[in-house]
Amino acid sequence: MFIVKHLRGIILLLTGILMSQTYSQPANLVLQDTTIATTATFTASNSITAGPNFTIASSGDATFVTGGNIYFRPEILIIQSGMLKTISDSTLVNIRPQEPPLIPARFVLQQNYPNPFNPVTNIEFSVPNAEFVTLKIYNTLGQEVAKLISERLAAGEYKYEWDASGLASGVYLYRIEAGEYVETKKMILMR
Q1: Same domain, 15 and 93
Q2: Are residues 145 and 88 in the same domain?
Q3: What's 182's domain CATH number?
Q4: 64 is in which domain, residue-wise?
Q5: What's the pTM?
Q6: Each residue's pLDDT tens digit in the chain (191 positions)?
């Protein structure tokens, strides 16, 4: 589970396990705006707000370390309308400066990875402007074996995971078409 929170120019990705008798989503944890300049201990009980229907039952401290790691100890407990929720195993958290989304300057089809693969591989590509895009997989006889995309996509960078379970080992081609841009690359499925 990932909970994304903003902390004045910083994105916090909190990993952990939520345990609850009837809920599968965590309570909305809100961290106060804070600028982190050096290593410091941040008291979680002063920085997590529970909202009108929540109560913080216990909390731990977060140690902000230069280099981008946060450690939460001990577990954070939240009571909601008499229901106890525990977010456990929330130990290491990465902090990255928030960056605006990048818009690619041109179409690019990357080499899949891993390659060779068995049976799953990733295909990444960039679209510089909104365009109708198709991404298809072919065998060496030119027969289409999979259609991953056939839709209009906004400008951006994309990654698709392809599972070739059920296909024989061999060389496959993946082809992207977006407007006038067309490119084909090879990949190898090894069982």
Answers
A1: yes
A2: no
A3: 2.60.40.1930
A4: 2-97
A5: 0.49
A6: 333 333 333 334 444 443 333 333 344 444 443 444 454 444 444 444 444 554 555 555 544 444 444 444 444 444 444 444 444 443 344 444 455 667 888 999 999 999 999 999 999 999 999 999 999 999 999 999 999 999 999 998 999 999 999 899 999 999 999 999 999 999 999 98
Q: Answer yes or no: do 35 and 76 share one domain.
A: yes
Q: Are residues 16 and 80 in the same domain?
A: yes
DSSP track, the chain: -EEEEE-SSEEEEEE-EEE-SS-SS----EEPP----S-EEEEGGGTEE--TTEEEEE--EEEEETTTEEEEES-EEEEETTEEEEEE---EEEEEE--PPP--SS-EEPPPBSSSBSSEEEEEEEESS-EEEEEEEEETTS-EEEEEEEEEE-SEEEEEEEE-TTSPSEEEEEEEEETTEEEEEEEEE--
Q: Which of 97, 132, 153 is the last residue of a domain?
A: 97
